[in-house]
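Final report, Chapter 2: Outcomes

The project's central promise was a pipeline that accepts a single protein chain and returns its three-dimensional structure in a standardized token representation, suitable for archiving and comparison. That pipeline is now operational. To close this chapter, we reproduce one record exactly as it appears in the project archive, with the input sequence first and the structure output second.
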Amino acid sequence: MPGKNQFSPNSINSNFPPLEMTGGDPYIRALMRTISASESNYQDPYHVIYTGKRIKNLNQHPDDCIPIIAGPNIGKCSTAAGRYQMLSSTWEEMAKRYHPNKHGFLFWQPYSFQPEYQDLVVHNWLSDRNYWKTDISKLLQEGEILRVLEKLSPTWTSLGYGIETNSMSQYLPELYDRFLQEELGKAGAKPVNKTPDAVTIEYFPKHLDRGLVEKALTNIDFPLVKVPSVVSHTATNAIWFGDQVKTEEVKLVAEKLLAAGVQIKAIRPFGERLEFSDYLIQVGADPSLQNDETLSLEQVRNTEVFTRE
């Protein structure tokens, strides 16, 4: 159920709206806000339908099937609506299970799609251990946000593991951390201290890499997030890293890649500080490096500080 993103990654700010519902599990609440950041990143997400059009009447799911003009589902139509971009069929199924206002057979009426009810249905759905065959809240409390996003990606396909990732997908783990601190604070719970070495690797897959890069990166004990590549005509040849990434952590990634036969030609800090980039290592391609020499393992191991020069 993909949402359309109106912000670029470099313009991410703190203006993500809070939930309308009150109470609930702060870990699930943070996850809900993370889902909507990717699915319906608008100032008024509860009133958004597929393509970003606004609707006023939320007495029931709008069930407006809008033609899909791009992506893997082109030619079909989508009824995705609301903060969580739920299809009308999904909403009906989940509302029957989790909506607080149950309807009897003799007095059927549409389930209210008002903001509070959108939140309540999704909160109850994500909290259902029987449905998901796992305890999502427990996984989140154990710090397994990447595992949770992957599990949910067949349902919300923009979460970084599905077929319709967008420019926000790569930032979801960091956004979740921010939302969690806020939700724990609202609940009067003690914020979770993020470990200082919580490095995440972002990789931009491409056919020219022949699977070598991904295989090397999966052998490193850092979370790996794959995001759509915008440079497909150049094989992976560069590494970028954030301010809080240790030199030895960058070297570890570079050495694994070089040992796998990946021709790394530059290792550089980010040119400017990006949102959520402090503990980030990016592995991708820079076309301007094509004629440069490949770094050797010895060069990497003997470098004390990596610079942009």
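Archive annotation: Residues 1-14 have pLDDT under 50 and may be disordered.
This record, like all others produced under the grant, will remain available to the consortium after the project formally closes.
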